[in-house]
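The material for today's practical consists of a large collection of protein records. There is nothing in a record beyond a sequence line and a structure line. As an example, a complete record with its sequence and its structure tokens follows:
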Amino acid sequence: MYKGLRVAVVIPAFNEEEAVAAVVRSVPGFVDHVLVVDDASADRTYQRALRSKRRTLEVLRHPRNRGVGAAIRTGYARALALGADVATVMAGDGQMDPADLPRLLDPLAAGAADYVKGNRFLDGSVFRVMPPLRVVGNIALSLCTRVTSGYHQIFDSQCGYTAASRAALEAVDVDDLFPRYGYPNDLLARLNAAGMRVCDVPVRPVYGPGWRSGISLSTVVHPIASVLLRSLLRRLLCRWRRALSPEKGAAEEA
């Protein structure tokens, strides 16, 4: 437990046989549940994760590839079923520093936020460490997501290093989250529609010497553009419904 919170770490993994065992071992000892979700990897990700033999480790497996968002959905659902107070996400490729996990949990433990996300741009090394094309892409998507999500104070929208309270996960339809790379943008808009408090904390950008991206323009531009548009429309619709609800209540009383 961490400051009275029962914590689950969700580790989505796809073809991460070289990194996943080390990621599992790196999870801090205060974590109550480590949930690896193998998204139908073609390599030995599932076997390598199982061999970690960490106490409270569960390795879940999709029979077919469904996307990183779907893997996180599976992990969230299991975390809720286990009674976790907080579900955090750490990628299976080792791009997230486990030493940053307390930073994500502290605002939740203090009752100051419902959902906390990492912001690599708050770390001074980001422009030296993050590949230039990723910097440009992240800045563009972050600015767009500020508009579509309604959270104008957040940045680095694509950073998947996050911590969600049980209340936040129960307030959104986890099973309906976008299943692939646009899931963070979709989730933020849903959190805003549910009135959840979201904040950024600094996390260290991690890119190893052999790092390679599984993201390409063809796989993200159209899906994320579609997610952003739908997110904006959903948020505006929810705002409109909330604005109408007091008038509706008054009419019913009359």
About this structure: The chain has a mean pLDDT of 88.
